[in-house]
Structure formats: C-alpha cells, structure tokens
Amino acid sequence: MQQHIEILAVATPGRAMLDVSRRVGERLRAAGAEDGLVTLFVRHTSASLLIQENADPDVRHDLLTALDRLAPEDAGYVHTLEGPDDMPAHIKSALTATSLAIPVMGGRMMLGTWQGIYLVEHRARPHAREIVLHFAGSLSASTEAGA
Fold first, then answer.
1. Closest to 121 (Cα-Cα) out of 88, 72, 83, 77
2. pTM for this one?
3. For 89-131, how does the pLDDT look when each residue is reduced to its tens digit (9 = 90+)?
4. In this predicted model, what pLDDT tens digit does every residue of 52-76 receive, in sequence order?
5. Which residue of 28, 102, 105, 124 has the lowest C-beta tally within 10 Å?
6. What is the DSSP string of the chain?
C-alpha cells in the first residue's frame, strides 16, 4: 500500500456549497491513484464536507435553507465574539461532516451518477479554506518514479 497526501486550498464566496469533485479527481489523477480509498478532511470548525446531489442546484439551496432553520443566527447564543453567523456555523458543521471517505477504483472515485463532493461554507463572508486529501492504496509506477 502506498500513500499520497496534499492540501487543497479553496476560496469561498461566503455561505455556499462548492462542488470540489472535479478538483479532487484531478488531484487523484495527478498523484497516479489507482485503487484504494481517498479521505478528505476540512481543517475548519465552521465549514463542512458533504456528498450530495450534483444535478439540481435547488437541492443545494434547500439544504442551506434547512441548515439555517436548524441553527438560526438569532437563537441567543453566548458565543458571539466572531459575529452572529459564527456559532450557527459551528452548529451546522457539527450536524454535517468534516471528513469523507470515498473508494477509488481504476483511478476514479466511485461516486454515484448524481453525487458530488461539496465544501460547505457556513459563514456569511468569504474564507480561505483547506481540505486535506489523503489517498491510501496503489499508485501508478510512472508517478512513483516521478515521471
């Protein structure tokens, strides 16, 4: 078994669900990933990762709206040091996921037809986010040799 690890930097526009599937796939191809498991981990407490439908943008809109209903800004939180959207962002992150594990076969992530990988920005303003990509499995020989 071999490993590859790197950090993906993602600039967010503020509250949004950003599809990072293509970028993750490109990085796996560049690393020579063949068969194994890719783990993604977001290094923040007010953002999260989701696998969700990638066909209809209304799904993303409705998910963000549902999360806002679960953790509204005006709920009387004690933690307000970083603004009214910060504590709700922590709650939304706790309710979703900070890491994902996706099987890779033949160099391709085994996502379903309508599945995409999303970085979810829970804060209102833009942020620089980091996703750790860790692949464990077989790497192509040409990549191992540095070709």
1. 88
2. 0.93
3. 999 999 999 999 999 999 999 999 999 999 999 999 999 999 9
4. 999 999 999 999 999 999 999 999 9
5. 105
6. -EEEEEEEEEE--SSEEEE-HHHHHHHHHHHTEEEEEEEEEE--SSEEEEEEE-S-HHHHHHHHHHHHHHS-TTS--S--TT-TTHHHHHHHHHHS-SEEEEEEETTEE---TTEEEEEEE-SSS--EEEEEEEEEEEE-HHHHTT-
User: How far from chain centre, in Å, is Cα 139?
Assistant: 23
Residue 130 tokens read as 């980091």
Q: What is the length of the chain?
A: 147
Q: Between the CA of residue 101 and those of 32, 51, 95, 97, 110, what are the distances in Å?
A: 18, 10, 17, 11, 11
Q: Cα(93)–Cα(67) distance, rounded to whole angstroms?
A: 10
Structural tokens at position 53: 């439908």
Cβ(67)–Cβ(98) below 8 Å: no
- Residue type for position 72: P
